[in-house]
Amino acid sequence: MSDGMHDTSLAAAYQDVRRRSLQLAEPLSDEDCGAQSMPDASPVKWHLAHTTWFFETFLLEPREAGFVPFDAAFRVLFNSYYNGVGARHPRPRRGLLTRPGMREVRAYRANVDARMGRLLAACPDDAALASLVELGLQHEQQHQELILTDVLHLLAQSPLYPAYHPAGHSDAALAPARASEWMAFDGGLVEVGHAGAGFCFDNELPRHRTYLQPFSLASQLVTNGEFLAFIDAGGYRDPALWLSEGWDAVAQNGVAHPLYWIRQADGWHVFTLHGLRPLDLHAPVTHVSLYEADAYARWAGARLPLEAEWETAAAAAAGGSLADLFGTCWQWTASSYAPYPGYTAAAGALGEYNGKFMINQYVLRGASCATPPGHARASYRNFFPAGTRWQFSGIRLAR
Description:
This protein has helices at 10-25, 30-34, 44-63, 74-77, 102-122, 127-155, 224-232, 244-253, 290-299, 307-316, and strands at residues 182-185, 188-192, 208-212, 215-218, 261-264, 267-272, 275-278, 329-336, 362-367, 382-384, 393-394. With 399 residues, the chain is an alpha+beta fold.
């Protein structure tokens, strides 16, 4: 069991995670839940149905006596990218699925949950079943984070700046952060990758040795105020700071500041899950692409960390020398998302979970404010294309 689930039974953990997904949808209207703001995002309704499809397809279908799907059409509608399962509805058109509605999706979840409860009760000592359920719960937690990031992008399209949840403002968030310092690490031959008995995804394995030159990491994340200085210094207008592909993306898309920043008569604001807020200069900058993070690092006379540097430093930072490793924003690394030496994907359709995406993506480390509790660990490898901005992605400098 993972650290976030070790103190409860598998059945109770299942119920907790599944309940949390529905809770995330509670502040939203049915219209909110059915809309899709861009091809990279999905409607909340789709997330709720797809995570249910996962349990029905990979747990119930091979194990349930006399299996009958809740709705045979859902096998196509809510398959994400598993070619081994069969046909899929095109990702950019998920927002056009006005049917089934939210009522039927909730009924689908309730039906599968009841059947999963019976399956778990009938097979309390089935280790293979438990492993698959754990994978399904971790998968659903990934989608819980996507629900929040996708909802934020959706609501940001409205000139009304509607809040997902009006609470969340705190004066404590406006307190100045500590000055960033350089934390030195020796490097040398280090071990990276998941170790121990807890859950991990296959892309965190196998644990292996790699060599690092001595390096330093910034103790604090780059703040909004520091990034604003980069903007004011003309950082978005200086091609010398940018990777060629990043410069093209900035120029073609008219990018001149992080996503969700809005300049008004009284200064900079940022759109958040809690609505439009004045830009907190002391808070870590978020919603920047790898291109923006890399350009800022060059401007600051630094660079982005390698993922092995980040993991090694995180493992050595138990005393708190590095702030906001987890729970604030994902941190871009300079490492391409590639298999570890000796990596092998699982057999069957589940082998498509991670391995086939190991191209044209970069690794982010840590966890964000949208990451569910218990889902983060030092070896976790998040990954997105270099131009991605709608995730809670930020910057930790290295040198």
